[in-house]
Amino acid sequence: MISLGIIGTNWITEQFIKATDETKTFALTNVYSRTEAKAESLIEDLKKKDIDISTDLTAFFKKDFDTVYIASPNGLHFAQAKQALENGKNVIVEKPSTSTIKEFSLLDDLAHKNGLYLFEAARHIHEPIFKKIEEIVDKNREKLSGASFSYMKYSSRYDAYLAGKNPNIFTTKFSGGALYDLGVYTVYDAVVLFGQPEKVDYDAEFLASGVDGSGALTLKYPDFDVNIIIGKTKNSYMSSEIYFGRDTLLLDNGGDISHLDWADDNKNITDVPALKAENPMDSEASEFARIMTEKDQATYDKLLKYARTVNRILEQARTSAGIVFDADEEK
């Protein structure tokens, strides 16, 4: 197994480590946290032993492990990934990997120069159910006539924001907001299934902190549009749809996809059988490890191209809406 260090001690880190255990792909050896207590708590929850804890990032990257998984706030991704690559570590970084396309290009160049891997952890595109969607789109591509994706979920941190606190996910300092959180999933949907759009436009509903609480994103392709609604300040239970003229593929969600249906012109709705793992991060853990072990350059290049395109679209979208991050000042 591939030795693994992690940055971040939240729920998503725990889920990723459980996925690596289930798939027997990565072996956790090192944990970085700002506080030793949080690191110890995570290790205890995971029932791990003999894990090295660091509270100093420089010391952490000097330790003997192969790959780092970064699940810190968005605004910290670039600096931490850069430091990892400079220290000879492969990087798996939670989406979005960077705040700007310039940052992404710098990381890509550094990984290439040092012969290392840089993965953006957009876990849902690796799941079997998403592969089924790709199969259906490819089979019916001549009839493809557009899509609508919806991913709106009331954030567990929004009440704290309303109470006057300053959660990272709702600040420009940490590159927060709906687009750079839930929106990433839906942009990945469009890029993987349909490619790069010709035009991007985002109409955002701003919060006083300067980030978008929700919004409507339009991706224009030569023959159709993809319309996306995203939000972290309200809940939506709308299904997402991919259109093939008279027929429609229904997705129960634009990001956390767990069920598919096919609807024909007579309103007959048929279940589309598709696999969904209990841990949605199992597939990406397996795929990243396989690519590294087998040195599958073709698949790695494809994933890197997806990530670059998604990060470019995100920047174009927030620029069109007038969203400015602190990271933009470093351009």
Structure description:
With 331 residues, this protein is an alpha/beta fold. It folds into 2 domains: 2-123, Rossmann fold; 125-281 and 313-330, 2-Layer Sandwich (Dihydrodipicolinate Reductase, domain 2). The protein is 36% helix and 24% strand. It has helices at residues 11-23, 36-45, 57-61, 77-86, 101-113, 128-139, 158-162, 182-194, 282-294, 297-321, and strands at residues 2-7, 26-32, 52-54, 67-70, 90-94, 118-121, 146-152, 199-206, 212-220, 225-231, 240-244, 247-251, 260-263, 269-272. Helix 5 (101-113) packs antiparallel against helix 10 and helix 8 (182-194) packs across helix 10 (297-321). It is globular and about 60 Å long. The model has no long low-confidence stretch (mean pLDDT 97).
